[in-house]
Design a protein that fits this description.
heterodimer, A: mainly beta, 24-stranded antiparallel barrel, two-stranded antiparallel sheet, B: alpha+beta, Glutaredoxin, 5 helices
């Protein structure tokens, strides 16, 4: 709106008073013009057909995803927006993402005790077991809320949050499509030591307490069932620290919530999470346990996959980075039920010791395992009018294994310029439960070995190489991968990766997947070009996975932060 | 005519104040995070003296760990010569968050470690992907940033810290 229109509408006919207010506004701006931050990100693909790997050429031949985030803060005021564009979307993204338009926007006010946002926001209560709205662009995952959020800090160590809104479901015709249900909730957290600073100043024990309540409303439009229109979930959490020990736990319960996910049963659900850790210089360990039953919680009971999830159930295993380990047999949480345990350990043999040598020798080991839950069905009948199908108890596991991962890695630095990392992984994945392969049944067991070599040639030039071997009797058989990366700091990198499926039971599918890339980086700008063949795989972040089909062609990416 | 003059003066005013904004640089946004011990920290009120390096990383990000382990070996010298403080902001979410203290202590890092499990600070800083490293001057202005890590990038970062040190003299 132009200033003079503004003045007319405000009926301030006098030019002088209008000019005054303009000057006042402008000089206020001059005192503090605020800050813009944000980023732009674009991925372009030109794809060829490749019948051997079943990669199709899209009708449009080329694909592009692009995003621009702009955030503005000025004193206590904040505002932000994101434009996004799919013309059409790149491979592996949900097919209903299309068009160009506003994907997110908000305004808000913040000071030392209040933070209010109207429009879109991301938020997490506790560990997210009953509420987490977040975005992961690489996955095409975004369940942001559109509504209102209020954060209030009435005293030191106390945080109260209230949220109200509708979740993002999709992006069609350049517009955000929202879920049909409404989500609302409150969360409170007290850091006891901060609140009672006077009395607990010298306390070695550190205590954090928290609790949340989240409810969703969705109209019952099912003619055959009487569905609860309002479904509540609540949770309590505790965090303790004493010297080098730490403990945190959260327990959540969800009221009966018949949905497509749970086959419209009227059971309650639960999720429990606990971590016990100990760490000191040179050594750290954490032991974790998780129990989940009937905990899929969405703002639309008819949706599936990754759509409009209100909560977040982290999968209890390590996030791997080496190509063959990360994308062939990954595991995603089973929201209908699982019991999982994990141990992570890191020990560094000291510098100057016999084993540690000149630079110290870190050893990292990790173990994770997941089992199915037991459903106690005696006394329950599927035809019962109450609709309760079974009883699920806390940490009550069956003998059916879903997942197991044992891995170890050792980093050896030989001198200032040479270092190597040796890793071994033993992964067991139950393909009947967490399906990753079309042509395998039961447990797929694989052994993976990786050797990574880092060589710093001089101040700016370096080479990194990875040699990976995966051995399995099922699915597509054995794989070998080699990666060579050449870096010229701080601006350039070149890399070549070949994945060879030499153990495929079908001879004609014993293929090389060769891909070459180079990139240019300058400050916060990054260009990358890659060309080649990419196998189909599951791309996962935080236990949320998306299938990315095989492709052959050119990919250009551009990212810019500001 | 009055109208045109009026609009012109408004535009001129805005342009002038905007130009001035450019010189003051980009300020560190204010986000409430927790450190590894669970204490609340406001990113705009870090209360540190001297230059600050903010490095976004995660336990599952190999180049991030390469960068922070490389700087770890140089950190004592860097601190002695420039008074720099490094803040390692972990974007690990609930899945891997508990592995952060294991890694940080297991590697004996001396950095200040902040937790950003839902990416609030990451978003506010305009970070697309990790590693992403920022250099902040004494007044809280972001003066340099670099995406990605390749061996040798730490030299460039150190040059930037030194030139910041020179300027502030």
């Amino acid at each position: 709106m132009l200033f003079d229109d503004f003045c007319e509408t405000m009926k301030m006919k006098s030019l002088i008073s209008c000019a005054f207010s303009t000057v006042a506004l402008a000089s206020f701006g001059q005192l503090n013009n605020g800050t813009f931050t944000g980023n732009i990100d674009a991925t372009f693909q030109y794809l060829n057909a490749d019948t051997l790997i079943n990669a199709k050429q899209p009708d449009s031949k080329s694909l592009i995803n692009s995003y621009a985030n702009v955030f503005y803060t000025n004193g206590n005021f904040k505002a932000g927006m994101r434009l996004e564009s799919y013309l059409p979307r790149i491979q592996g993204y949900p097919d209903r993402f299309e068009g160009t338009g506003l994907g997110m926007r908000y305004v808000g006010y913040t000071n030392s005790y209040i933070d209010v946002t109207l429009g879109n926001f991301y938020e997490q209560f506790g560990s997210g077991l009953i509420f987490r709205s977040y975005e992961d662009r690489a996955l095409g995952y975004d369940n942001n809320m559109d509504g209102m959020r209020l954060i209030f800090r009435p005293a030191k160590g106390v945080v109260l949050k209230g949220i109200y809104g509708k979740q993002r479901l999709s992006f069609t015709d350049g517009k955000v499509v929202k879920a049909s249900g409404i989500v609302r909730g409150i969360d409170g957290e007290i850091h006891v030591n901060d609140l009672l600073e006077k009395y607990m100043k010298d306390s070695k024990l550190d205590i954090v307490l928290g609790g949340s309540f989240v409810s969703k409303y969705q109209k019952d439009d099912n003619p055959d069932l009487i569905l609860p229109q309002n479904v509540g979930a609540y949770s309590g959490r505790l965090g303790l620290k004493y010297s080098k020990f730490s403990f945190n736990a959260e327990y959540a319960v969800k009221e009966n919530d018949p949905s497509e996910d749970n086959n419209n049963i009227y059971n309650k659900g639960h999720a429990a999470l606990a971590n016990l850790g100990y760490s000191q210089k040179g050594f750290g360990i954490v032991v974790s346990a998780k129990s989940v039953d009937n905990m899929s919680f969405r703002s639309d009971r008819t949706k599936s996959l990754q759509d409009v999830l209100i909560n977040y159930l982290p999968s209890m295993n390590k996030t791997h980075t080496y190509n063959l380990v990360a994308t062939l047999y990954p595991y995603a949480t089973q929201p209908l039920g699982e019991v999982a345990y994990q141990t992570e350990l890191l020990y560094t043999f000291k510098k100057g010791s016999k084993i540690g040598g000149k630079y110290g020798l870190p050893i990292n080991a990790n173990f994770s395992t997941t089992y199915g839950p037991i459903h106690h069905t005696s006394g329950f009948s599927p035809t019962d009018s109450n609709g309760i199908a079974y009883q699920g108890r806390l940490f009550d596991q069956s003998k059916l294994q879903y997942w197991q991962d044992i891995n170890i890695n050792i980093t050896k630095k030989f001198n200032a310029n040479y270092s190597m990392i040796f890793s071994y992984f033993n992964i067991r994945l139950n393909n009947d439960i967490s399906k990753v392969a079309d042509d395998a049944h039961g447990i797929i067991e694989s052994h993976i070995g990786v050797v990574e070599v880092n060589w710093k040639i001089n101040k700016t030039n370096s080479v990194r190489a990875e040699f990976q071997g995966l051995f399995t009797k099922k699915d597509k058989g054995n794989w070998a991968t080699a990666v060579i990366e050449y870096n010229v700091s701080p601006n350039w990198f070149f890399s070549v990766m070949d994945q060879y499926n030499y153990g495929n039971p079908l001879k004609e599918l014993q293929l090389h997947y060769l891909i070459g890339s180079f990139g240019y980086i300058r400050d916060a700008t990054r260009f990358m070009v890659s060309y080649g063949r990419q196998r189909a795989g599951l791309f996962c972040v935080g236990g949320v996975c998306r299938f990315v089909p095989a492709s052959n062609g050119l990919t250009l990416t551009f990212t810019q932060s500001f | 005519m009055k109208r045109i003059l009026f609009i012109f003066s408004v535009v001129a005013y805005c342009t002038a104040s905007f130009a001035q904004d450019h010189e003051t640089g980009k300020k560190l946004p204010s986000v409430q995070l927790k450190n590894m011990d669970g204490k609340s920290v406001n990113t705009a009120e870090l209360g540190l003296k001297g230059p600050i390096v903010i490095s976004f990383w995660a336990t599952w990000c190999a180049p991030c760990k390469r960068e922070l382990n490389t700087i770890h070996d140089l950190y004592t010298d860097w601190q002695a010569e420039t008074g720099v403080t490094l803040i390692a902001v972990s974007i690990d979410d609930e899945k891997t968050k508990n592995q952060v203290p294991v890694y940080v202590n297991g590697k004996s890092w001396d950095y200040i470690v902040l937790m950003d499990p839902n990416g609030d600070f990451k978003r506010a800083m305009g970070v697309n992907n990790v590693p992403h490293t920022f250099l902040i001057d004494n007044e809280g202005n972001i003066v340099y940033s670099h995406n990605n890590y390749a061996p040798g990038d730490e030299e460039k970062l150190y040059q930037e810290i030194l030139s910041l040190k020179e300027k502030s003299k």
